[in-house]
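User: My instructor asked us to take a sequence, write out its structure as tokens, and then describe one feature of it. I'm not sure where to start. Here is the sequence I was given:
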Amino acid sequence: MKSLFGSFWRAVAYCLHPKVIALSLLPLLVAGAATLAAGYLFWESAIASVRATLEHWSLVNSMLEWMSSMLGANFRTGIAALIVIALTIPVVVAFTLVLVGLWITPAIVTLVARRRFPTLERRHGGSWWVGIFASLAWTVGALLMVMITLPFWLVPGLALVLPPVIWGWLTAKVMGFDALAEHATQPEREAILRAHRWPLLIMGIICGFLCGVPSMIWTLSMQFIIFAPFIMVGVIWLYTMIFTFSALWFTHYGLTVLASLRAAESAMRAVQPAVAPSSDLQLVEEVPPQERFGYDAGPEPGTGDSA
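Assistant: Let's start with the prediction itself. The structure tokens for your sequence are:
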């Protein structure tokens, strides 16, 4: 637990590093541009499609008419926009996490290793294409879990627990792999991820709860819904900073564990040669001289023939 909390505060401090701040702007430019383009092309048509789908169900339409009579005629458009946003956010979160994992995490690993672990050998146990394939596979798995559990998000209380757990699982998988890919061998990485799976999952879930903070922006007022594509750019920047902090946290923790593992292995190798010669010497001393040098030593003094 000491390494977990120590890595947390180091990650907070590194978030203020100028290089880290500059790195966080790159996914913002890519994901922000993609969001603005998608909003320009599909925002109005997506709202219209969702609204038509809601009005197609008689029970939902009756409920919307009742709520519109109390909240105003724009309520239907607002609720349709919120549904579009709710369906868009998981994709944005997953896309931002992949961008951070591919672009920011390698630079963060280099920064942390140079400043804290300059003598830690890079053994390149995870290639970049394996990282890309694994990140995409885990992202698809997380999106499938979101789709499967989406009806349970309407249950009071579960909506506050399920998303952080899902995003926490995804964060632990992606960040845990990326933090160790450059320095650890494949057996080292697998051993660390297996032995520290619960601390890594706890770290991921904490980061998952942090990811819920940007979503609270949409609860401020329905009047901001018309600016949703532009607000989404700011939300993406918040997600980028949260995932950048996650990458720093996992990197500090992972490299600390890896350095401790290799130090323990080096200590064991240093002890073994000192023990081996003493055991070999003991074996040599126990061998009789005639067997060791290949001759018959004859009878011992005082035991010859008296004849």
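For the description part of your assignment, you could build on this observation: The radius of gyration is 31 Å. Try explaining in your own words what that tells you about the chain.
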